[in-house]
Amino acid sequence: xxxxxxxxxxxxxxxxxxxxxxxxxxxxxxxxxxxxxxxxxxxxxxxxxxxxxxxxxxxxxxxxxxxxxxxxxxxxxxxxxxxxxxxxxxxxxxxxxxxxxxxxxxxxxxxxxxxxxxxxxxxxxxxxxxxxxxxxxxxxxxxxxxxxxxxxxxxxxxxxxxxxxxxxxxxx
Amino acid sequence: xxxxxxxxxxxxxxxxxxxxxxxxxxxxxxxxxxxxxxxxxxxxxxxxxxxxxxxxxxxxxxxxxxxxxxxxxxxxxxxxxxxxxxxxxxxxxxxxxxxxxxxxxxxxxxxxxxxxxxxxxxxxxxxxxxxxxxxxxxxxxxxxxxxxxxxxxxxxxxxxxxxxxxxxxxxxxxxxxxxxxxxxxxxxxxxxxxxxxxxxxxxxxxxxxxxxxxxxxx
Lengths: 172, 218
Hints:
The structure holds 2 protein chains of 2 kinds. Chain A is α+β, with helices and mostly antiparallel strands. Chain A has helices at 19-42, 47-62, 76-79, and strands at 68-75, 90-95, 100-105, 110-115, 120-125, 134-138, 143-146, 153-160, 163-167, 170-171.
């Protein structure tokens, strides 16, 4: 399967083998190391990105230490028949043992429902660049809407009574 | 290349992988990674920072290997780390945190590719002139005029690398993360079998060397 990729340019090792094997393996290692140095110079991890990863610890690990994690159990991008179009809604379901959160995200905004139905306060988290999270309220039926256009890293923090539920981060 | 004091290079692979063709030295020590994950889960911020230092280049390599636009790539990188922070106390095999991050980044990359009708290649020439805000020791070396020839050699090496076929370019971009990723991590990063990585690596590196020789770079 991998071989067809190489058909455009016949690889030629000149029939070498035996004694040259160790030497070539060494040359391979040297070349990989040269690439590693080149990558460190020409394509390093951007410093500001690295900082967001360091800061993620306080924001997303320590901060929500008592929250339940709602795992992504359905993502229309992966689990549904692909639909092409300019504004196909992204359907997401997050689940804990006790509840699910269904979310539908479009270019216009987001709507969703907490099931079993319950009122809740829902913070929409969007990465550290939007420091102040938007908060919406779910009604008695657990329904909520938000007319903000969302993109990038995204998570929801739900508070209902004593319960705090955090959805898994994903990129919209 | 600076390594964290707590992530060491050049250790023997753990016995769990004895049945796999593990041929690489210098991989991030899995036992050390497992201990760091444990410490970070227990509230040690320095352990978290060591994890970021040790595994950031791998996550970044996965993003770059998938040729996302800069904006998409940054979001995937952030999403992978945010989710890792969330899962820190729940990860079943802390010593495989590198594979976990690589796999998470890969899946987010694939989602981006599904939503983007047309991919924006990142191999535009400006990349070659990109200068990071924070100067690494390597970059400082390049700044000196004496190193101009070395800089030119590195630039031409990178150019030949960028012109390889997709699969080779993708594999090598992940392999060149620092410290060198294990084959398990490469497998998680690219969704290819561990056993195919060694032979593919050999072909790709030799192909690149042949190109470099033909251009007189080597």
